[in-house]
Design a protein that fits this description.
Blueprint: H1 7-73, H2 79-99, H3 103-133, H4 136-223, H5 237-297, H6 301-327, E1 337-339, H7 340-353, E2 361-365, E3 369-371, H8 374-392, E4 397-405, E5 408-415, H9 422-425, H10 443-453, E6 457-462, E7 468-475, H11 477-487
Parallel strand pairs: 2-4
Antiparallel strand pairs: 1-3, 4-5, 5-7, 6-7
Helix pairs in contact: 1-2, 1-3, 1-4, 2-3, 3-4, 4-5, 5-6, 7-8, 8-10
Organism: Anaeromyxobacter oryzae
Transmembrane segments: 183-205
Keywords: ATP-binding, Kinase, Membrane, Nucleotide-binding, Phosphoprotein, Transferase, Transmembrane, Transmembrane helix, Two-component regulatory system
Length: 488
């Protein structure tokens, strides 16, 4: 799986992993610090609760002390001080209720407040009236009740302080635990970062150095002339792709060399064939002339034999003329515009007059003009229409469509025949290749050469309704005129 990842992605993954570790370390430090700060804040809040609890215990003692002073003095002179102490107790219980972090602490605060209220009722409803009336026994009894209430308040206050101190201890222990955990996590991440960096660097180095060495060795073999050498590389996808392209380039170079050799051979054969064709063209003409002359004078079996000689001589002359057309340099296409619709109509009319389209429905439609050599273009159309008529057969249809497309003129010849066999598509325009029983295999090759000499192309394909479609594409008049203007 790692070998499928490109070098750039590997570097990105390695850097990303390091960045991820640093981010995790930073996040761990931030989170740990935040949790420690929350623990400190909680500790301070609980310490504030302890302080308020101690102040509450002191305020309750002040409340009780002012009750005692009232009993000792025997008048109402300390009631103002008592009310201040009572107000202090109520304020402290309200603040403690806000600081209470749990249900138990709030229960204790409520109990302290309730006991303080009981102490206040005992004082105001029993002790003060008894002091004023001088009922010493009743004062003594109620003072004892008040003392018990104060003792209960002190116990409740101590329980509240213990609760707050327990929470302080827990918060401190949690803060210490978080500090230790964060420290170990940071140490682990900082140790893992260089280890990961070293591992990624080693993996990337191994995935690049070895393939580069293999590429270098393969290039040396190819430079030495071994075009059959193949470079096998595994590792970084870029280097694997480079090795494949190198192998494809070597194969293309080998094929190009083979094609050059074949082209030289074919060129030699073509020159030889052109020379031979030129030399035998005149004897063939003589043979054809004498065969026609003798056939007119002969009769019976001899006339039939002479007809065969004449037919075969004509076929041989067609082959010779095709060879000469293929090897002879084509004349310049010319710049005079040719009306392709008029040319197509004329070709169909002449072939129909020669009874070469009997039984085949041929239609021509559309208009287009293109600069070129009219007679050479006529030769192409004659060949295409004849081929289409032979493919369509008796009762078939041939459509010649003239038009323009993408700034070019096009003449498409479509037939209703069986279409082009898949095995023949690649060799369709090669000289001497034919699917006809008596074809020379030169017509389409010559036609494509004429099309290309005009700056166009001849292509074969499938007709929309079935059958074959041959499209002659030529530069349109406007395009050609613009080109000539630029050249000028």
């Amino acid at each position: 799986m790692f070998d499928r990842i490109g070098t750039a992605k590997r570097l990105a993954l390695g850097l990303g992993a390091l960045v991820f570790l640093l981010v995790v370390a930073s996040a761990a430090a931030i989170v740990g610090s935040a949790r420690v700060h929350r623990g400190i804040a909680e500790t301070m809040r609980q310490e504030e609760g302890v302080r308020l609890s101690l102040e509450l215990a002191s305020a309750v003692r002040d409340q009780y002390a002012h009750q005692a002073h009232t009993i000792i003095i025997g008048d109402r002179s300390h009631l103002g001080f008592y009310d201040q102490a009572r107000a202090t107790v109520l304020g402290l219980t309200a603040r403690l209720r806000q600081r209470a972090g749990g249900e138990e602490e709030r229960r204790l605060v409520d109990a302290i407040e309730a006991e303080s209220g009981t102490l206040d009722r005992i004082f105001k409803e029993s002790i003060v009236p008894s002091v004023v009336r001088g009922e010493h026994e009743n004062v003594k009894e109620e003072h004892g009740r008040a003392q018990l209430v104060v003792t209960r308040i002190q116990d409740l206050t101590q329980q509240l302080v213990s609760r707050f101190e327990a929470r302080i201890e827990a918060a401190r222990a949690e803060a210490e635990r978080i500090e230790r955990t964060t420290l170990w996590l940071l140490v682990g991440l900082l140790v893992a970062a260089p280890v990961l960096a070293a591992a990624v660097s080693l993996a990337i180095a191994r995935s690049i150095v070895v393939p580069v060495a293999q590429l270098s060795a393969g290039a040396a073999r190819i430079a030495a002339g071994d075009l059959d050498a193949r470079i096998e590389v595994s590792g970084a996808p870029e280097l694997v792709s480079l090795a494949r392209q190198w192998n494809a380039m070597t194969a293309a170079l080998r094929d190009h060399q083979e094609k050059l050799v074949r082209s030289e051979k074919l060129a030699g054969i073509g020159r030889l064939a052109a020379g031979v064709a030129h030399e035998i063209n005149n004897p063939l003409g003589v043979i054809l002339g004498y065969a026609k002359l003798l056939r007119k004078r002969a009769d019976g079996v001899l006339a039939e034999d002479l007809a065969v000689v004449e037919e075969e001589a004509l076929r041989a002359k067609e082959i010779v003329d095709g060879l000469l057309d293929l090897s002879r340099p084509l004349p310049p296409p010319g710049t005079d515009p040719v009306d392709l619709r008029v040319l197509a109509d004329d070709v169909v009319a002449r072939l129909r007059d020669a009874r070469l389209l009997d039984g085949v429905a041929v239609s021509v439609d559309g208009v287009a003009r293109a600069p070129g050599h009219a007679e050479k273009l006529r030769q192409v159309l004659v060949n295409l229409v004849l081929n289409a008529a032979e493919a369509a057969g008796a009762g078939g249809r041939v459509a010649v469509r003239v038009g323009g497309r993408d700034g070019a003129a096009e003449v498409a010849v479509e037939d209703s025949g069986p279409g082009i066999p898949d095995a023949a598509r690649a060799k369709l325009f090669e000289p001497f290749f034919t699917t006809k029983p008596r074809g020379t295999g030169l017509g389409l090759a010559v036609s494509r050469a004429i099309a290309r000499a005009h700056g166009g192309e001849l292509a074969a394909g499938d007709a929309p309704g079935g059958g074959a479609r041959f499209a002659l594409t030529l530069p349109a008049v406007a395009t050609a005129a613009a080109a000539n203007g630029e050249a000028a």
